[in-house]
Write the structure tokens for this entry.
Amino acid sequence: MQLPIFSALRRQGSQVRILSGAPNSPKIISPQALTRRVLTRALESATQGRSTAHAMSGNRPLHLVRRGAVYMVRFRIPTPLVSVLGMVELRRSLHTVNPNEARQRCLLATSWFRMTMEALSNKPAPTRHDLEQAAVEFFDRMAKDVDQPRQLSIDHFDEDIEFNVEESRRRMAEIDQQLVRSEFDGVILRRATELIASVGNEFGELPLDLRRVALQLTARAERAQLDRLIHLLKKPASSFHSTDELFQVHRLQEHPTLSVFQPIVTGVTLNQAIAGHVEWMTSRGLGHSQLEEFARVMRWMLEQVGEDRLLASISKEQLRGFRDDICRLTTKMQGKSSSFQQRLTKDPERRIKSDTAIRYWNYAKTLFSHATEEGLIPSDPAAGLNIARRKGEQKRTPEPFSQGELQHLFVTPLFAGCHSVHRPRQPGDCHRRDGRWWSVVLLMHTGLRAGELAQLVPEDFDFSDPIPHLKVRLEDGSGKRVKTTKNDASVRDIPILPQLIKLGLREFVNARAKAKTARVFVEFRLGEGRSSDGMTKFWTPYLRAFGLWKEGRATHVWRHTVAANLRSHGVADEDIGALFGHSPQTVTGGYGGAHPLSRKLKTVKQLDYGFDVVAALGGPYQKALHG
């Protein structure tokens, strides 16, 4: 139920007239006095009772009662509403056995009850259901706002701890951004409204400058509360010291007043800078695999310099040490859950390749370079820190398949006849052209990335166009954005060669559409980090089993094979890049839009593997034989 929180504002000289209680008994309060009261309440909210002496003094309110050990509130319904609502009294639990906490919650509940009664009085036909619903929403929300996690699962204790810490840090980052922009979400607005109400005033009656102060104080109080929660979860045995000077106990006496025009300045932490950089990378169209790799490097950096470290305090010396450690990463810990320090090795022979180290380090350099451009830090501490490729180290790329290797591949069981679809490595008389069979055939005729192929849906294939083609898209068949690509240039159309139609591609896709499968290549699961994981885990052991595996060969080798074949037939790199979904290498390369399908068709028609591929694969499609 929507409740009105704004009412008339009156000014008398430099003071603000705030109406509270009865209409005939207005209170006059100066901005300075109100700010002091708001600050006191914000401090109480953040420190949870550390500075609550003045709010807890006095007799217990009559409508604050105790039922057993738990406190509750009891409100009498105004006489005009008794007959309308069919009830005389409203009772609700405050979910606490602590008398000080009960008084605080009672203040909030009292303010809510008054506003609710006013709203119901102005409603044409209020009902008991309206009141009950409003009460459920308010008291449930209040319980969630003030409660801290009391019990954690024994079986998932560490996971629960990390989840609470991660969610708290995420919310702290949101609040920091709101403080910088001085724009606050509905949660802060609601709590600021309740904060003002708890000291006997209404948020809507304040001038704009005091509203801003109330919002800022509320946001900082919530941030300090989250900071304290993280401390309790991570270091429960040590004392807590807030990172916000406003809530540092030894500074409380230094803030008797707070200027309403004083700007709130917060330093950007490394965690916040990383979150902002991820948004920037996403806006540029970077794919999931690159974002995942960036996140992995950032986790290592957070381990090295500290999660709550201010970005501006990270020195060049620290980054130099992190860079050198990246060069010492071992290849033996890939895919394992271990700390950054556990991944380092002294053995040069077991270290990652220079290209990998350079790629990892460039993620860190880009973070600090972008932060400098955005004005988050005055200078770039990573500038000039580079990684040199080790002497004699060759850049590793998968060796393309030769003509002889391709012919050898096509006489292995999956293509020449296997035992069954579930036993594709054993010879037999099963010639079914399923997703495993088609994955190789399609990759070697299109230059698709394995992750792009794994995500294809039946609607991505257009066989009715004058130039049959498939579409690499971010959306599924219903238009929902569920797929990922490496970059913006990856979104493209790729012509389908006639030999693929002859081999039965149309029948294969139509069968998957009829079966209503979510994806065409359901034989391969999608990995969490890389969409090609399922294909890699199938093809790596398959190639090993038949002597076709070499270092780097799995699924990406097909792009190298197609590129090498096209280049050997005189196709320009510009046309190969357009087919492969590479970004143009020059500014003018992007002018005029993407290459038309007709030009791409001329490109793929240049593919010639030196033998009759259709015949080597068992001839044209036959439904009875190929399924």
